[in-house]
């Protein structure tokens, strides 16, 4: 899989992000949805990665700068055709290694507490993420789980 920094101009990526937002609103109350729309993902504080096999989009993941040492993972999504094929693992390894190369020391994320999000939580746990209190501007929410990881060695 080729992973690249994406400018969010391609139709496939936009469609995948629209599916992501639709799923978030279908599984969580609106006030508990923290997924970003395409325009928000174009912020200069965000690096957006997309993964491709030939010309087929496999998935995406973004990193958002919180401060000079801390980033947040955003918009992790695997295409329906690529589910359970290791795409999420490859994207996560790539994003974490990119964060290390950029000098970040800590990465955090917010994900849902519902059963729908169990595969994502399991993946993050395998990478060593631990549950934590809300970070940045997040508040306690029964529909959210917060996780964090101190960065060190390359993945």
TrEMBL record:
InterPro entries: Acyl_CoA_acyltransferase, Bact_Acetyltransf, GNAT_dom. GO terms for molecular function: acyltransferase activity, transferring groups other than amino-acyl groups. Keywords: Acyltransferase, Transferase. This is GNAT family N-acetyltransferase. Residues 3-152 form the N-acetyltransferase domain.
């Amino acid at each position: 899989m080729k992973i690249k920094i994406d400018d969010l101009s391609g139709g496939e990526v936009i469609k995948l992000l629209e599916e992501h937002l639709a799923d978030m609103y279908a599984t969580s109350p609106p006030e508990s949805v923290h997924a970003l729309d395409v325009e928000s993902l174009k912020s200069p504080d965000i690096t957006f990665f997309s993964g491709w096999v030939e010309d087929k989009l496999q998935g995406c993941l973004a990193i958002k700068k919180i401060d000079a040492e801390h980033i947040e993972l955003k918009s992790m999504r695997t295409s329906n055709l690529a589910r359970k094929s290791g795409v999420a693992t490859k994207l996560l390894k790539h994003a974490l290694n990119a964060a290390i190369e950029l000098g970040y020391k800590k990465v955090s994320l917010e994900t849902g507490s519902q059963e729908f999000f169990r595969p994502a939580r399991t993946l993050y746990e395998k990478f060593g993420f631990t549950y934590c209190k809300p970070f940045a501007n997040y508040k306690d929410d029964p529909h959210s789980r917060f996780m964090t990881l101190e960065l060190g060695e390359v993945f």
